[in-house]
Amino acid sequence: xxxxxxxxxxxxxxxxxxxxxxxxxxxxxxxxxxxxxxxxxxxxxxxxxxxxxxxxxxxxxxxxxxxxxxxxxxxxxxxxxxxxxxxxxxxxxxxxxxxxxxxxxxxxxxxxxxxxxxxxxxxxxxxxxxxxxxxxxxxxxxxxxxxxxxxxxxxxxxxxxxxxxxxxxxxxxxxxxxxxxxxxxxxxxxxxxxxx
Length: 196
What we know:
With 196 residues, this protein is mostly helical. It has helices spanning 2-10, 12-15, 21-42, 50-71, 74-91, 103-125, 137-158, 160-165, 167-195. It has one domain (2-195). It has nine helices and no strands. Helix 4 packs antiparallel against helix 5 (74-91).
């Protein structure tokens, strides 16, 4: 994540007028919140999980906006953000935002992100750009988002009880998925840099 963030900052001059500028925002929010989370966990020895919830809602809103830059469907953007925020508000009645990860909201948001990915991929397939998909940053980042989100759906919803027993499984899956996601962001930025 840090490497992707640094690479994005270094290439800001290339990204600032492209949809990938939102990836810099995505990475910035993730890094800042993760730094606070690590501080509170290691220094303050706190069990606060508000940081995980903030990462879930804020970074996914940024992803909705990034997909909008490619899809240009305002209804999908408004619906995605509205359902994401509404799921968090409803989840607040059942869980403590400060000390519990909002699993059900994360599941719903993951499904909405996957819908955005599939809408983007469908538009790409119906466009002549599909012939050059290897050079399109959004294609590779979208594939990584699919991998990441599908793993989150499986982890946070379908095998949640198993993970509480075997935390190593959780950390292994999240680490591999994160490496794929952040690696694809670096690759997407590199493609943007090479192909304009």
